Amino acid sequence: MDRENKNGMDIDDKKTWLGERMETLLPASYHVYNYLSDVGKRLRNAATIARLVGAEHQSQAAIAELVRLYSPENVAFIHLPQKEEVDNGVPMMLGMRARRAIQEATEHRNSAGYAKIASCTIDVIKKMTAHVQ
User: What's the rounded Cα separation, in Å, for the pair 98 and 123?
Assistant: First the structure.
């Protein structure tokens, strides 16, 4: 949806025009403004990264606690990829880290057990999506 000011000028065009005029007339001030704007963006990105790291640590602690409570033989983790992972065919870093945390917490490679779980999971998904195909 286009946004316009009271003169009918597109607000985004006005910002571009204003930025161009500011850069031309006050180049030093414009560069300071851009620098400070970038600092704000970097701080917001840093806060987001800190939240993600905190969530990752909480997930790792929860995985370890489940394995500790029930033992590796009695816990199965199933990673469901996000839509972007399926669409792009490339796993996201967060998913890779979760898999690594699970492998470290379980410390066993019960291939036959996981193959059976995979087979059962595939059968359930096929039954649930049979009407879609």
Answer: 24
Q: Long-range contact list for 125-130, CB < 8 A, 24+ apart?
A: none
What's the mean per-residue pLDDT of the chain?
76
How high is the pLDDT of residue 102?
Answer: 83
Report residue 110 as tokens: 């019960």
Residue extents of the structural domains in the chain: 1-70, 72-133
Alpha-carbon distance 102 to 73, whole Å? 13
Q: How many CA atoms lie within 13 A of 16 on its CB side?
A: 5
Residues 26-56 have pLDDT tens digits of: 778 777 777 777 776 777 777 777 888 888 8
Name which of 73, 71, 92, 94 is nearest 83 in CA terms.
Answer: 92
CA dist 6 and 14 (Å) reads 12
**pTM of this structure:** 0.48
User: Dihedral sign, CA of 24, 26, 28, 33?
Assistant: negative
Of 27, 23, 4, the C-alpha closest to 14 is 4
